[in-house]
Amino acid sequence: MNYADTIEKSLPPDLWSLITLLGEVGASQDQRLYLVGGRVRDLLLGIEGGDLDLVVEGDAMALARSLAGEHGGEVVSHPRFGTAKYRRGELTIDLASARTEVYSRPGALPLVRPGSIDKDLSRRDFTINSMAVCLSPPDKGNLLDPFDGRADLEARLIRVLHSKSFIDDATRIMRAIRYEQRLNFKIEDATRGYLLRDLSYLDTVGVDRLRHELQLFLEEGRPEGALLRADELGVLKAMHPSLKADGWTGEMFRKARSAAQVATPEVYLALLLYRISPEDALDLVKGYRYASDQVRIVSDLIKLKTLEKGLGAPGLKPRELYALLHGLAPEALTAFSLACESQRTRDIIVQYLDELRHVKTYLDGHKLKLLGVPQGPGMGRMLKALLDARLDGEVANREAEVALVKRWLAEGGPE
Ligand code: ATP
After folding, report:
1. What is the mean pLDDT of the chain?
2. Burial class of 176 by CB neighbour count within 10 A (0 to 12, 13 to 18, 19+)
3. Which of 65, 265, 314, 356 has the smallest C-beta neighbourhood within 10 Å, fewest atoms?
């Protein structure tokens, strides 16, 4: 089967023309161009979109320069060795040189050398990701499938290319799970065996790469699929002894999705850590070098748990609720509102998130000054008292605020 038409239909016409041209320029220099990786997999599955990974069997930079020299456009950068970025008008193409990789030790980033397309495909993770379609004449549209990826696509299997694959790069363990769950495939039996055998190699991978893979889980449409499977296979425990996912996790994630706009990776992570002890949760986010924003979400979540009793106090006024919750990360509040057991507390948090946190006074410092309030700490106290009055519904419009301020001025302050 020839895939040129299928690729053409999946791309904007001007991009396809440019790629065709690139393929021809490549052929004239004996540097063939290929579409590789996930895009080929998805094309064969009938899934649209995705990155356009283009590989040239030769020198990407030289080919991009030839294209620019012969047909205009510019080579805008070469972000890494062996890659090039070409731009013409609105269109940009990322081009990589086919390469071969050597792993000096498990988990280390590989040493990279120029190589043939076959070598390039054989350094990849799974058979279904190791196919290429040639984009240069005379083989344009032909599928290159050295590991029988097409058969695995049909059988719906995730299969590594060799038995040491997870040892070379244990992030592939998480990638296998992610593709399995996203595509509704199965990790093939022998691959599953290697995966279980090589779990300890997760330790050889840097924390930044593992955090990134966990993030990719959380960016999936239904992250609980990958998380539950990772738990079942012992991957979460290998990442951190306290990390787990089960039916509760799935229920919370589904709840997050059914509440508009709250199902972000940050909220998912907070939910994942909700049942872990404060010490372990902080150990995990710090150990995995999460950015300070995410660490803050987790510490705010911990704080919320300590506030739980106070939040349930009968007769809590809006101003008191505001004082308790003001400044806490919205993602922590959202996760807490989904996960905490008391319905009353959940409602209170939602009331804060939806209403109270947006409440503003009509008057600001400038307007208070015009009303005769002197600048200084007294003005700050007055603004705070005004906000409290607004929160508790004691004043509902500008006139009422002005009247209140005038009364305070006459009486010598809000206290
Ligand atoms: P997605 O739809 O998740 O973006 P993708 O297949 O495009 O899927 P990328 O992470 O963008 O995934 O990787 C592009 C290609 O590079 C993969 O299809 C695979 O061939 C190869 N690849 C990526 N990561 C690895 C890895 N850790 N080991 C081996 N090959 C990899």
Report:
1. 93
2. buried
3. 314
Nearest CA residue ID for atom 16, ligand 1: 37
CA–centroid distance, 174 to ligand 1, in Å, is 12
Residues 26-36 as b/e (b if ≥16 CB within 10 A, e otherwise) read bbeeebbbbbb
* CA gap 245, 218 in Å, rounded: 13
Strands (E), 170-265: 186-187
283 is a domain residue: no
Would you say residue 285 lies in a domain? no
Measured between alpha carbons, how far is 134 from 143 in angstroms, rounded to an integer? 7
Cα of 149 from ligand 1 centre, angstroms: 14
Residues 111 and 188 in one domain: no
Q: Indicate the helix (H) or strand (E) that contains 25.
A: helix 13-28
Binned at pLDDT 50, 70 and 90, residue 107 comes out as confident
Query: CA-CA distance, 393 to 387, in Å (whole number)?
Result: 10
Residues 144, 12: one domain?
yes
Q: Which atom of ligand 1 has the smallest separation from the CA of 175?
A: 27
Q: Which residues line ligand 1 (CB under 6 A)?
A: 37-38, 50-51, 53, 124-125, 129, 169, 171-172, 175
Residues 125 and 163 both lie in one domain? no
- Say if CB 338 and CB 252 are below 8 A apart: yes
Q: For the sheet containing 33-36, what is the strand order? A: 74-77, 83-88, 91-97, 53-56, 33-36, 132-134, 143-144
What number is the average pLDDT over the span 239-262?
Answer: 93
**In angstroms, what CA-CA distances link 57 with 76, 95, 111, 256?**
21, 11, 18, 46
Pocket probe mutation, ligand 1, options 40, 41, 52, 125, max atoms within 8 Å of Cβ:
125
**Nearest alpha-carbon partner for 38 in 106, 171, 133:** 133
The pTM of this model reads 0.92
Which pLDDT band, with edges at 50, 70 and 90, does 415 fall under?
low
Q: Per-residue pLDDT averaged across 360-376, rounded? A: 90
| C-alpha 77 to ligand 1 mean position (Å) | 22
